[in-house]
């Protein structure tokens, strides 16, 4: 069975809303491709139009990759060495928030993009069953 057939079969088993969310997340993905990027050009604008509201680009997914995390970590170390504790903490919080939002996105969990760091961390811990529901 081809990978494309497996992918289509998996999509067909999802509700339409989840299909659209999964496809939108793939449009925003900028990480590693095991089998390379598609050889044919993809009309992303057309796909986004078809998907509608759920296909708006998400900054969190686009910006979260190991290169981004490493760059932010290195910035935090420089700030720490310069004695800027507040700047270091701010960067650490930003990394934690980006990772937690990425987890929520990848798990298909909905959340308000205006939620504060504590709520996002709690949701990502709950969705991974690291803490019990209250």
Structure description:
The chain is mostly helical and 134 residues long. The chain has helices at residues 3-12, 16-28, 44-51, 59-63, 66-81, 85-106, 117-127. The protein starts with a helix and ends in a 7-residue tail after the last helix. The model is unreliable at 58-63 (pLDDT under 50).
Top keywords for this entry?
mainly alpha, single chain, 7 helices, 2 domains, 134 residues
State the major sheet: none
Number of domains: 2
Q: Note the gap between the termini.
A: 44 Å
Cα-atom radius of gyration: 18 Å
Please render the helix and strand layout as text:
Blueprint: H1 3-12, H2 16-28, H3 44-51, H4 59-63, H5 66-81, H6 85-106, H7 117-127
Compose a concise summary of this entry.
With 134 residues, this protein is mainly alpha-helical.
């Amino acid at each position: 069975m081809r990978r494309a057939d497996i992918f289509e079969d998996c999509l067909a088993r999802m509700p339409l809303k989840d299909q659209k969310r999964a496809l939108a997340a793939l449009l925003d993905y900028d990480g590693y491709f095991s089998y390379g990027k598609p050889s044919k050009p993809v009309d992303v604008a057309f796909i986004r139009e078809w998907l509608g509201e759920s296909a708006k680009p998400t900054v969190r997914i686009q910006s979260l990759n190991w290169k981004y995390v490493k760059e932010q970590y290195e910035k935090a170390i420089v700030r720490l060495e310069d004695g800027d504790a507040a700047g270091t903490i701010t960067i650490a919080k930003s990394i934690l928030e980006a990772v937690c939002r990425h987890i929520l996105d990848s798990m298909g969990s909905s959340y308000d993009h205006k939620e504060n760091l504590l709520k996002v961390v709690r949701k990502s811990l709950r969705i991974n069953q690291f803490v019990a529901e209250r």
